[in-house]
Amino acid sequence: MAPGGWWTSTRQAAGPGSKPHSPTWASPPLWRGSWVGPSLRCETTERSKPVGDTEYGALRVAIGSDRAGDTYKSVLTGDLHAHRLVGGVIEGSPGQQSAATYPEVAFAAAQLVACGEADRALLVCHTGLGMAVAANKVPGVRAVTAHDSLSVQAAVLSNNAQVLALGQGVIGLQLARRLVAEWLTYRFDSTSSAAKKVEAITALERRASHYMQGRG
Ligand SMILES: O=C(CO)[C@H](O)COP(=O)(O)O
């Protein structure tokens, strides 16, 4: 089901050189759940797949921006559609999104990731900072701001971050496009030494949540 209101999704066939990342849309169904309004609600009862897991092939990427990131978002959306490793693009409807603030957009996109509707999210605002801060409020989501190749690589390989936030006011468009192209080629290795540290972050998140519940 297409995300309601804000988000539209597009499936696309991977290009000839895409193996082993060719999409397998039919089994299991990857586009489940529906999304409502600025504060989106995940109606998926069962995750299509674990957050950040890419075993099903080509990446499904949600992309969003506030007004300050709109120009880059348009260009990067085109790049995503054309990229051989991207199997689907979910983008906020430009009309409504241009009025949306970065916390709303980031939270909504991060929810798409957390619920398994998207593998990753690409967010653009003026600095990339607020988007990452807001996206990190969604449990299970790891969002970073990164404006150089090493950080983009480490975001995936070391931190298993599913969300990349860029600042339209910080880097030039061509660097942003290059970084996104690089970002799409990286896959987290769950057998790597980084995995235990990412698990530790998840455990901390659970502990914090229990602590807060105890206080409530
Ligand atoms: O960069 C932003 C948030 O980190 C955003 O694009 C601009 O922030 P605002 O001026 O507070 O809306």
Summarize the structure.
The chain has helices at 70-82, 94-97, 102-114, 129-135, 149-157, 173-183, 194-215; strands at residues 7-11, 59-65, 86-92, 120-125, 143-145, 163-167. With 216 residues, the protein is of the alpha/beta class.
Layout of SSEs?
Blueprint: E1 7-11, E2 59-65, H1 70-82, E3 86-92, H2 94-97, H3 102-114, E4 120-125, H4 129-135, E5 143-145, H5 149-157, E6 163-167, H6 173-183, H7 194-215
Parallel strand pairs: 2-3, 2-4, 4-6, 5-6
Antiparallel strand pairs: 1-3
Helix pairs in contact: 1-6, 3-4, 5-6
The protein binds ligand LBSJTCU2.
Ligand LBSJTCU2 binds near residues 125 and 129.
Model description:
- The protein is α/β, with parallel strands linked by helices.
- The chain has one domain: Sugar-phosphate isomerase, RpiB/LacA/LacB (Ribose 5-phosphate Isomerase B, Chain: A), CATH 3.40.1400.
- It has seven helices and six strands; from the N terminus they run ββαβααβαβαβαα.
- It has helices spanning 70-82, 94-97, 102-114, 129-135, 149-157, 173-183, 194-215, and strands spanning 7-11, 59-65, 86-92, 120-125, 143-145, 163-167.
- It has a six-stranded mixed β-sheet with strand order 1-3-2-4-6-5, with helices on both faces.
- β5 (143-145), α5 and β6 (163-167) form a beta-alpha-beta unit.
- α3 (102-114) crosses α4 (129-135).
- Residues 13-56 have low confidence and may be disordered.
- It binds the ligand O=C(CO)[C@H](O)COP(=O)(O)O.
- Ligand LBSJTCU2 is lined by residues 66, 68, 102, 125-127, 129-130.
Q: Main attributes?
A:
216 residues, alpha/beta, Ribose 5-phosphate Isomerase B, Chain: A, six-stranded mixed beta sheet, 7 helices, binds the ligand O=C(CO)[C@H](O)COP(=O)(O)O, RpiB_LacA_LacB_sf
